[in-house]
Sequence to fold (482 residues):
Amino acid sequence: MRSFFKLICCLFFLAFFQMTFAQTGNGGEEDMLGIHKVEKGETLYRISRNFFLTEKDIIEVNPGLTAENLKAGQVIKIPITVRNQHVFKEEKTETIKVSSNALYPKSTARKKTDKSRKINMAVFMPLNYEAVDQLTFTKFNIDEKKRQRYKCFDYIYFYEGIRIALNNLEKSGFKVDCYVFDVGDNDVAKVQEALNSEVMKDMDVIIPLVFKQPFSIIADYGNRLQIPIVNPMSEDLSILDNNYVFKIQPSAAAEVETIIRYIRKYYTDANIVVVHDGKAEMKSVLDYYQQLLTKGKNTWAILDYNKYASKLSSKLKEGKKNVVINLVDKGNSRDNENYAKRLLSAFSFKNDAEVILFADYSWIEFPHLDYSLLEKNHYHFTLNHFNDYSNINFVNFVKDFREHFKTEPDRIYATLGYDITMFFVNSLVTNGEEFIHNPNLNRVDNIISDFYFERKDEKFGYQNKKTTIYKMEDYKIRAVLE
Fold:
């Protein structure tokens, strides 16, 4: 395995190295209780998540309590631990009210980390080692070669992000043995061969950057051996049927929830217009918007742009803030840019109707779009990972990336590889066996875009619900809600 690492290192001009790191003492939990008044709509599961506990923890200190007999207005006891004491006021026994504005509760818990435990991490990804000979250059073919696409570079940014994270972790005293398996993105045979190797039995976490079929094989393997499996890119919720899976990309539903909560926090009296184009694949998203909007106090409307484009102006209310959520996707950049121009132009017919626009992040990349219209209409977008130069952790990452690889990171893969490695290595060391039951226990320093994981129950895997909302302001992009 190490000779394989050495060969990959030479061919890609990257340094694979081994690092190690450590398990944290769990620390004793305080033998104290607080109380909480159950609010309307709260479930036992939701309360347990809010206080970083399990349902069993709460039931044990409330004899006779069950998920079924929990009622609004009921006062229940809550075990106070180092992970939830920050949400209690100084007087430990008074009622807690968790802020409804906290979209993703941030842990401030700090455990003393004993960096003596070594973590074994496996990365499955298509390095396409067999295609490396295509990189042979001469002075006669260099211009032609530069124009070609090389399979061995398709996902290399992901590994380079991991490499920066491993370097930073080593400097902080962590140690990890990183094993990289060169498998095709849809090569079941190579994946199975790698899983059969003896070293795999000792893995603490597996990160497969592969397609659905090989991923399901790896997920089953992780389930049998109780190894966390991190899926970096899939948006398919069916992968959560395996309860050791961690899905990094937030679902469309999570994005809907984030936008609606943001509106309810900052635009309580706004009129909301959801614009769509009637595509079947967007029906579930549209239905979820309608479900959440029905429960709120905002005025709202849903408009099929293909049928009723001329009626958009009439849906905007003068003298009010109007949040317009765009779900229209024409399928290619050119058509989407033309559509964006038409939509922004339609807003100008209602000068007294202030627009707050939510649209895809790709709009800032349209070459002929008038940015002043995006600025005027308070353009927002949501994204899990974004190259945000106002984020000091991203700026530091870019500096490290330039120093190591003499180039700029790509838009998604590099930071994703970095954040996944930083989060899971740090959390596994700090929380040990506790991690799989509550991955949100402690704060991870120097991460670019944090994660917040939830799951339905212990039969399912975790999905990351953390989506950041960005806004154009003074012709700059800044995060307005994390």
